Amino acid sequence: MVAACRPLGIMAKRHTSSLGKRSSQFVAVAERRFDDAVALCRTGENARANGAQYLAGLVIDILLKGKLAESYPTIARKRSHEVSDADRHIWSLVWRSHELDQMLRQMPNVAFAVKKRGEKAGKPYIHWLNGICESWTVLLRYSPMTSTIGEAHEMVERVRELKELLK
């Protein structure tokens, strides 16, 4: 099997590795998906724009999951059958869901930090993050919508800046 086709360690070993290692795995995978989005943008082809935007949103999804795992380490370490009803929502956000707005709501400290960094830098980071969280969905991979490569570049550049804040 080609190395690129092997299951990612984050999925195969998520319950056996330490949370610190898992957090770095979230970041590493997010960086790979970001590089994929950039590569699609570099083609300059409108036909690749949707894929670039999907992958850019996935970067935010992965990084928010990593932040949730850091914020709720006891819940994130558990296997599905070990999770209590009270903790199921958080566990699902980390390991199953792609509801970015719900993830961000569980971490007001992250939203606050992004807002403050934006104010300091004179950039609307929190608006960019909220916009992605409200509009991006994993279902975009099935969408017949057509974006332009310019729109994809804009989203990828926003995600470039946001990912540094979410690491």
Summarize, please.
Helix content is 68%, strand content 0%. The chain is built from 9 helices and no strands.
Write structural notes for this entry.
There is one protein chain. This protein has helices spanning 9-12, 19-42, 49-71, 73-77, 88-95, 100-105, 108-121, 125-135, 149-166. The chain has one domain. The protein is 68% helix and 0% strand. It is an all-alpha fold. The two termini are 31 Å apart. It is built from nine helices and no strands. It is globular and about 45 Å long.
Strand percent estimate: under 5%
Tell me the distance between the termini. Answer: 31 Å
Number of domains: 1
Mean pLDDT: 89
Query: In one word, what is the shape?
Result: globular
Which spans have pLDDT < 50 for at least 5 consecutive residues? 1-17
* Biggest sheet features: none
Radius of gyration equals 16 Å
How many strand segments? 0
Count of separate DSSP helical elements: 9
Helix % is 55-70%
Main structural class: mainly alpha
The succession of helices and strands, N to C, reads HHHHHHHHH
Task: Offer a few descriptive terms.
mainly alpha; 167 residues; globular
Give a topology summary.
Layout: H1 9-12, H2 19-42, H3 49-71, H4 73-77, H5 88-95, H6 100-105, H7 108-121, H8 125-135, H9 149-166
Helix pairs in contact: 2-3, 2-9, 3-5, 3-9, 7-8
